[in-house]
Design a protein that fits this description.
Length: 282
Amino acid sequence: MKTGKAVKTAFAIGAIASLGVGLDTRMQVSEYEISAENIPASFDGLRIVHISDCHGKSIPLLAEKTADLKPDIIVCTGDLFDDEGEPCEGLAMAEKLSKIAPMYFVTGNHDIWRGDYLLLEKKLAAMGIIPLHNERLLLENEGGCIAVSGVDDPFVLTQKRVEERLRLSFEQLGERQAEYEILLFHRANLLDKISNLGFDLILSGHNHGGQVRLPFVGGLASPTSSWGDGKIFFPPYSGGMYEKDGCRMIISRGLANTTFVPRLFNRPELVLITLYHKENEE
């Protein structure tokens, strides 16, 4: 009996401790290093901070941690704002980030659902934050060139229309123009549709890390806005780095929570990516 009680007590303590770890909401910094021959030598060591899915919230210590990472550029892959509520906290946070390094962003579905989004974008632009609407920006340094492109969120309700919207967006974006090409695109659940378009690195968000992360499995679910344009349960891309069709894809788990379901084993994530020039070994 005593042994049985001890086992039950140990199990209960373990379960409580595990739940405490699972509900940890402290921001996690995830770092990735990418080496490639077509990363120009003049951009060797380029540091990119990737944020996503802030949903208009003031994220504690985000600006301070971002500054500590000493980024050369900051990119936001959508849902900087939520679809409703006051935008003041999101704007104040964006202004702090804009003073750290040049910042670029693309729309997420929650951004474009706002009736005042265009006004908010004007305020961001006044801070020097650059929106990318189906366009490519060339970064040049000492004869080397890297492109940062951005595609608008393709919010529509049917699969056929999603594909049509994506096709038109990439037609507007045009052909590859730089030695190394980076794409900012909100919806990780659509990466299978764009991984073969010739980009070297795609940065995305949207899936919130699957909301609940299961050990050795990954994210449990992608947002309900994915109906009709992606897999909801056990999404193939929920957080981390993936490779497909010669393209690397890094998915941010996001920084905020927008559902009644808590983030479980899924800490808010700030991503740092460092690019390195790799010498041709031939």
